[in-house]
Amino acid sequence: MNLGDYADAITISAQARHISHKMGHQKGEGEALLNIGCAHIYKGDYLEGANYLTQALGIFRRIGDRRSEGVAQVDLGLTYNQQGDYVVAKTHYQEGLQISRELGDRLGEGVATINLGYISDQLGEYASAKIYYGQTLCIYREIGARTEESLSLSCLGLLSHHIGDNETAYQNCQQATQIAQEVGARNVQAYALTRLGHALTGLNRLAEAADAYQQALDIRRALGQQNLAMEPLAGLARVALAQENLSQAQTQVEEILKHLETHNFDGTDEPFRIYLTCYRVLRASRDARARTILATAQRLLQERAARISDETARRSFLENVPHHREIINCQLPIDN
């Protein structure tokens, strides 16, 4: 799984589940289900992942395995988070965090905490996100969890980018990329490289940004992560647009639009930034589809916001996140 061989991970874990079930070894069956669910998550198949994780959670509760129950809770939270259901995701993360703290499970505590930070970041609650990420980085460094440290650093980098501190974002993402490469965590490395691309773009170091985005894109494609590949691809389109290479930007956006015919952007850090990128490029090309893309982005953004029951959090989601705010404030182009 760490090497990105998700199909093999599912096959092997399914064999382990079958053997464990025949032996009546419920813990082994639950762990196999957990692995299958996680592999589906990494593939971007969140509904299927949630199905296996829910089965695993039921087994862990039945046998009283609290540590594994905490892991399943956090992984379930991830499936809802990546689909934009932040309220349900937060509930699972908080339950996982409580269990980890009860057991003194520092790694589990770190995983739950970083995900709570990620939700805060996505909601535009940047002060809270900074606290969560800082706590997480301390935990991972304390226990020597290098892969998780890399992920934490890249999350801090993304947060710094969101608040306009691209120099700090660059430093964090550069360090995250180096660690992920050292430990061979390709999925985490792709996140770090994409976020590094954002920081470099913010610093107007466009050639370096394009290189980071291309490396991330290559990893995503090698791992078969079609949805996640759209994020660095959109980054490349933004760089091309900034370099006034409209033809190249249009080609990259066409690939994104082709993807949207059969897929979505679930699992990406910022799905609405991808929509906004497509809109900007199509608008610059005087392409009539710009109106449809913007209308779709506005509708989906409002639908996701409607799932946020807390009014303050919903307002933050729409108003504090820069690309969300821009989408809301954009006027639909007049049809020719």
Structure report:
The protein is mainly α and 336 residues long. The protein has a domain at 207-336: Serine Threonine Protein Phosphatase 5, Tetratricopeptide repeat, CATH 1.25.40. 81% of the residues lie in helices and 0% in strands. The protein contains 17 helices and no strands. The protein has helices spanning 6-23, 26-43, 46-63, 66-81, 86-103, 106-122, 126-143, 146-162, 166-183, 186-202, 206-222, 226-242, 246-260, 271-284, 289-306, 311-319, 322-329. Helix 8 runs parallel beside helix 10 and helix 13 packs across helix 14. The N and C termini lie far apart (50 Å).
Q: Biggest sheet: strands, sense, closure?
A: none
C-alpha Rg, in Å?
A: 20 Å
Mean pLDDT: 94
The CATH class label of the domain at 207-336 is Mainly Alpha
Strand content: under 5%
CATH topology of the domain at 207-336: Serine Threonine Protein Phosphatase 5, Tetratricopeptide repeat
Rough shape?
globular
